Amino acid sequence: MGVQCVDCVREQAKGERRPVTVLGGRAGADKPYLTMAIIAICVLVWLGEQVSPRVFQEVAFAPALGPSEPWRLLTSAFAHSPNQIMHIGFNMFALWIVGGYLEQMMGWARYLAIYLVTALAGSVTWLLFQPVDPSDPGAYTPIVGASGAVFGLFAAVIVLNRHLGRDSSGMLAIIGINAVLGFIIPNVAWQAHLGGLVAGALVALALTVARSRRSPVIAWAGILGVLALVVVLAVGKYALSPTGLLPLG
After folding, report:
1. Could you tell me which residue, 155 or 3, shows the higher pLDDT?
2. Which stretches make up the Peptidase S54 rhomboid domain (predicted)?
3. Which of 11, 50, 86, 189 has the most CB atoms around it within 10 Å of its CB?
4. CA separation, residue 4 to residues 14, 15, 16, 21, 106 (Å)
5. 215 a catalytic residue
6. pTM score, two decimals?
7. Per-residue pLDDT tens digits for 7-21
8. CA-to-CA distance for 249 and 239, rounded, in angstroms?
């Protein structure tokens, strides 16, 4: 037992190293609170869709809406089909399994970054295969779902586990099965899965390089680099459309 002044404790804390994860990120809480928060948001949005169709209409992404409402590229990743409970059920189960694992491994900041970047990459990759001309009815086909981000996390697990000498055979099997199902089950945006996978692998690769060289700057440079590439692809898609690039914003 003893008494310490507040200033003494503060000065002592300055000299202590903050705990970090195995990948050099800032360690978070013992429980995957960020993963739980993302799941809660998705569930609340889905419940809102049950109450009013307007919720789906306000957050879903359609190619023709991208130039005027670009935030839909990201908000659509927090919504799911209101008529298919298995859609949100599978995505949230997968997110809980891999999300909690990665959150503890990467730290909450890097984990949030990879989730958002891969979610955006999934939407943009799907966009690349769609018509964007407002005069084309297909340009108003909506997309929702967190699967782009989930597949991005799948890829990150494989890359990071390989770097750390851990087994990922089970994850490879899951990706293979879902890749086949994407071509068998109708209305599955396999393009979003592909975009998320590639983006997740690239970001995870940057994290492994950052760990090897003990340079957090490399990790964030990699994350921002993938984000920049995704944005360029989206802008390029609209710029090369028959109607030209519409103002983003």
Report:
1. 155
2. 68-207
3. 189
4. 15, 16, 17, 30, 34
5. no
6. 0.85
7. 554 555 455 556 677
8. 15
Which entry of 80, 87, 123, 147 is annotated as an active-site residue?
A: 147
Distance CA 193, CA 108 (A): 23
- Cα(74)–Cα(94) distance, integer angstroms: 19
Proportion of the chain above pLDDT 90, given as a percent: 61
Q: Which tokens belong to 210?
A: 């950052």
Give the DSSP per-residue string, 103-168.
HHHH-HHHHHHHHHHHHHHHHHHHHHTS---TTSGGGG--B--SHHHHHHHHHHHHHHHHHHT---
User: What structural domains and CATH numbers belong to the chain?
Assistant: 30-239 (1.20.1540.10)
Question: pLDDT tens for residues 141-178?
Answer: 999 999 999 999 999 999 999 998 888 777 777 777 77
Q: Which of 76, 80, 87, 193 is flagged as catalytic? A: 193
CB neighbours of 21 closer than 8 A, spacing ≥ 6? Answer: 27, 104, 105, 106, 107
DSSP-assigned letter for residue 188 = -
